[in-house]
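fold-stage: in
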Amino acid sequence: MRLIQKIPAPEEVCDRFPITESEKKKREEVLAELRHIILGKSEKKILLIGPCSADREDAVLEYVSRLAVLAEVVKDSFLIIPRVYTSKPRTNGDGYKGMIHRPVASGGEDDLVSGLLAVRKLQQRVIQESGLFPADELLYPSLYPYVADLLVYMAVGARSVEDQEHRLVASGMKIPVGMKNPTSGNISVMLNAVAAAQQQQRIIFNGWEAQTEGNPFVHCILRGYTTMAGESVPNYYYENLVKLYDRYYRQNLSNPAVIIDCNHANSNKQYDEQLRIAEDVMTSCKRNRTINSFVKGLMVESYLVDGAQMIGESVYGKSITDPCIGWEKTTELVQKVSEMI
């Protein structure tokens, strides 16, 4: 291992791109509403929506600015939280790894310090220019303090949900955290992650021994799974929701809650299926009051342009990782599903 450069302390980065007092107040209001939804004190649903990965600042800012207008239209049905995912897990280590991995101009190695500053700046500008507060994926737990005062939601991905550090750091967070089912589809793994994160934990974090308080707002995200033969298997159906609700109670977890990821293995990455899946989930909610209170919202992958682009295409506002629905289909999905709540 070759040491390259020392990463600046969180305070140094946060001071470069600070949050204002009025933004802090607004963020607390959004967090309060999120917690009310998870606690079942609000009939609104959460909608986590945005690009598969936040690849470029200008396109992401245009997207969230449009999203802010749409959020106002459906505010009585949805609390919209933009996905601004700045780190991207890779199954085999190849490919785009997120904005945090910013290539050096001369090529070759990544400049992680520059990437860290770019991440903080983007999340701050999302708040300033849209008034919305972002969600990100907890890929690198040690980087959470660099954006902790900006985010209102974190997701732990299918490849990270079994990791001890992710679970224990989530137990110390002051924001809701969603635990995805692993790619194998093992529901016990996801529920054990929720259980660990809801408890108080003694952990090592960024050079400190720390005591967490436990996070009662940690919950499940169903994203489908993949068989050994490589086939995608959805797990958003009514029967899946009933079984998961039963498992929640048998394991005596706090605040039963699930969010349905409408893409990934639930759609077999057929991004156009996301509207149908969202409608199916809302239909399940209409059939059963218990399921309606259990399902707290949806996750949708959406950007300015339909689909995904190949390396070197450089299409503004089109995903460079998983395919997403474009803006017209996004508007249709949000408006149609909001009418079902």
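fold-stage: in (second)
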Amino acid sequence: MIRRDFIIKTGLLGSALFVPSAASCSRELVAENEKFYTPVRRKVKMAMLSLQKQNWEHGIATQAFVENGDETMMILMAREAVTRQGADGRLAVISTANGINDSATPLEAVLRTAEITGDQSMKEAADRMLEYLFERAPRTEEGYIHHSYHGPELWSDSIYMAPPFVAYAGYPEEAYRQAKAIIDRLWIEEESLFAYRWNADTGEISHPGLWGLANAHAISGMTKLISHLPENMPAESEILKNFARKHLEGCLRYMRDDYLFHNYINDPSSFVETSLAMRVADSVFKGINAGWLDRDLLETALNIRKAVHQKVDDLGYVTGVPGPTTYARPAWSSEGQAFFLMMEASYDNLYA
């Protein structure tokens, strides 16, 4: 297991832990946030907060605040994820949620909130989420967690939805095992891209489309999981780095002259969308900063970032992403807003 002082593994929360007052915490954090929030970023944030959110959307929005250092908003969003925790342990559930891995997306924020505030209920909520994933979530015969209650399928989306957060919580071996199972089943070698869905009953890919949003989740999931693997897993880390490098190459092979992508990456008749572009730039910034990606892709990532900024409208919506409820048309979405803020945080970190 990973050796960190995470409360879920160590029982760090106790009566001796200092719990800052809300007032003192707020004053300190607002001053820090001013360093990140340019006018356009603030508009994107406010538009994101205005949007209704399913479990993965709430979790990804929460993660954006983790990555840009906005601890005040992270704590508020994490507490709401716990308030909406289902009886089965899934976080951020509104009404009937079919997603399984999706509810793991707030885990890092919940754990960080527990550590910052000393709130025992946050630790217990994280415990319940992990217990659900490990013991009750439906899975294949080999133990790979289904993406949804709709059927026995693995989706490329799930590389992001659970493994990085399970690794952060202290279970990197299981996180890697789950991610690698998805990679093995959905990686299309000749394209260096991911198909969308694989069915456990048939043992075959059930949705072969090279969907931009699914590939966006996949590259982000691998990039984030790499950052949470411990030093005693060098072979697994190198495998993920190699896939991430190849995946970036596969995506960039289909990049348009305007630095954006089509909704189905290899189908120029599908609409031009923004989500994959943001995730590619974000992953390049993160990979260069972490040292596993060389700087050859930096100029491309910077041009992608410029192109994405042009897609932000006057109200702060990042336009052109696959939008709810069908995700089959260009619109805006909470996760699209969050992708923008993550990209901006990674850009700042690279140039800090």
